[in-house]
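Meet the record:
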Amino acid sequence: MTHTTQQTVETEAGPARIAWHPAKKARLVLAVSHGAGGGIEARDLQALAHVLPAHGVTVALVEQPWRVAGKKVAPAPKTLDTGWRGLWPALGGPGLPVIAGGRSAGARVACRTAAELGAHAVLALSFPLHPPGRPEKSRAEELLGAGVPTLVVQGGNDPFGRPDEFPDGPYELVEVPYGDHGFAVPKRAPIGQDEAVTVITDAAVKWTGSLG
């Protein structure tokens, strides 16, 4: 297991934190932040941090300032973008191309800021295409406007947008069968929770390997 280091970074939205999971021979950095209701302990983020370093990808798990401050609810999108921008110089510290990533609200931040910050690519986990039950309130423009190679990993039963609801566009989409917004699969599903998580990590390994 690689040695994890914590780094605190001052941003205009307050101090943020990065948990570095370094690869021995890194060629990319994957920076991923959490959603609006949880932290970096999310199963998908932890799985990526454990698996990708062996494949030449250093993983930086990013805790947004509101989370570091102990707040329960995420601030407005603009504030999330401010925190992410403030972290970017630190994420580029290793001198490698940086993939911007995140789950849910964090995926939106990565998409919104990718072109401006010079992200190498975007990894969008559980992209919230619309609020549950409100398909007319689409956020597809954020995803389609990322402007860099993008991989979406989406649960088959995500109430924020099932894979078949996504518009055509210049991105890849991998479905986690039966997964909800947190990639949890029901007990009755023909695949187990570990298998569901492996779908995520396998997709990330393959995709990051193709980025060059």
